[in-house]
Amino acid sequence: MDKILVRGGNPLIGSIPISGAKNATLPALAASLLTAEKVHLSGIPHLRDVTTMLELLGQHGASITIDERLGVEIDCSGINNTCAPYNLVRTMRASILVMGPLVARFGEAEISLPGGCAIGSRPVDLHLRGLEAMGAKIELGGGYIRATASRLHGARIVFDLVTVTGTENLMMAATLANGRTILENAACEPEVVDLANCLNSMGAHVEGAGTSTITIHGVDKLTGGQHRILPDRIETATFMVAAALTNGDVTLTDTDPSLLHSPIAKLREAGVEIDMGQDTITVRGPEKLKAVSLKTFPYPGFPTDLQAQMMVLMSLSEGAGTVTETIFENRFMHVSELQRLGADITVRGNSAMVMGKPKLVGAPVMATDLRASACLVLAGLAAEGETIISRVYHIDRGYERIEEKLLALGADIQRISG
Ligand code: EPZ
């Protein structure tokens, strides 16, 4: 398995482009199942999770063409299989996103239960309850969900808690339901808005995306569509932290600062200098980082997908801060790895107290999940000496060519196979 070797100490200087958002690409790809006409998506990132979703659509019978600019055209006129198998679903939980479209268009779906993952049990009960409210029959057995419906009907669905893919799954299902569906306590993430824009380009009638109440007026069929995926706000913020940690001066292009109000405010509080353009963000790291505290919340609150990265910054700040994780029950797997680099972090329940230190010292560490692996790369960039990160397949799921982008900024980083 590949590893990443980082030698710390180089300030990151220069400019790099941001890729399309993984968490907008995955639902948009699933949405192509809703129509027999071709859907064209541009600006998709070249990531393992995207490849997995394309493989999943392919085994359903979709035909997929990828052009030289990494645009993808999906033709789901020939869907001949409504089962999402365990061997694919277990590698990517977001496979659950094909369930709503399959039930809505074909009246059936057989989806392997995703199972838990490193950051939590991550049930899908709210996805299933919503489909039942729309008239689907849900049976569980043999590790699979079997959902059937003659035709889904509109419903008013109030989510017990905010779920991003739950909102996306039911929004997609509702586009072909008979009547109107109202989703309340819906996720407001930009990726939900992006999916709504994609669906509306296919002839759907989705209103209110980006607010906690989304209304979908069902139609009999959808057309083909064209959509450009929005920039990845988590990739953007990850590189912002990298610049802040290394006393760097980095401009991120092809991004959207309006998606990042909370991370920008928090980094400015830590003493980081940030300038914003229309589609650029320039970040200058300070000599000394100030301690901050943060609590993760659904959008527009501080993103849970950035919690691990910020913990590295806090480990090198002057003073103490606390991180409170309110979304997932086990998203501190990176703490023990950061402690190997000398970080002073104490975890109590869903909170971690971080005592800033003048430096971290490189050591071999192991990635446990996607964002934890990114945090270990960031720590290696700032640590003294060499850091070797194993199990980097985690990072390839969500970051396009991360070591190439960091190399372009002057990092001393390389991928070593074996
Ligand atoms: C999405 O996951 C993202 N993934 C995650 O990004 C992100 O961390 C998460 O939203 C929160 O922002 C994609 O969009 C593909 P949730 P999702 O449903 O939808 C509980 C990354 O690093 N819950 O919003 O699976 C759940 O256990 C990934 O890119 C239920 O209890 O997350 C969690 O505690 C990691 N029942 C909370 O809700 C349900 O039916 C929020 O989960 C659904 C969720």
Round the Cα radius of gyration to an integer and report it. Answer: 21 Å
Shape: globular
Structural class: alpha/beta
What is the count of DSSP helices, taking H or I runs of 4+ residues? 14
- Could you list the spans in which at least 5 consecutive residues all have pLDDT below 50? none
Strand order, main sheet: write it out: 22-23-1-24
What is the averaged pLDDT score? Answer: 96
Helical fraction = 25-40%
Number of strands: 24
Distance between the termini: 5 Å
Each distinct ligand: ligand EPZ
The major pleated sheet works out as: 4 strands, mixed
Bin the strand percentage: 15-25%
What does this 3D model show about the protein?
This protein has 418 residues and is an alpha/beta fold. The chain contains 14 helices and 24 strands. The strands form 6 sheets. It has a 4-stranded mixed beta sheet. The termini are close together. The structure holds ligand EPZ. Residues 22-23, 26, 94, 120, 122-127, 161, 163-166, 304-305, 327-328, 370-371, 398 line the site of ligand EPZ.
What's the layout of helices and strands?
Blueprint: E1 3-7, E2 13-17, H1 22-31, E3 39-42, H2 48-60, E4 63-66, E5 72-75, E6 83-84, H3 86-89, H4 99-106, E7 108-112, H5 125-133, E8 137-141, E9 144-148, E10 156-158, H6 164-174, E11 180-184, H7 190-201, E12 205-207, E13 213-217, E14 225-228, H8 233-245, E15 249-253, H9 261-269, E16 273-276, E17 281-284, E18 294-295, H10 307-315, E19 320-324, H11 333-340, E20 344-348, E21 351-355, E22 364-366, H12 370-382, E23 386-390, H13 393-396, H14 402-407, E24 412-416
Parallel strand pairs: 2-15, 3-14, 6-7, 10-11, 18-19, 22-23
Antiparallel strand pairs: 1-23, 1-24, 3-5, 4-5, 7-9, 8-9, 11-13, 12-13, 15-17, 16-17, 19-21, 20-21
Bound molecules: ligand EPZ.
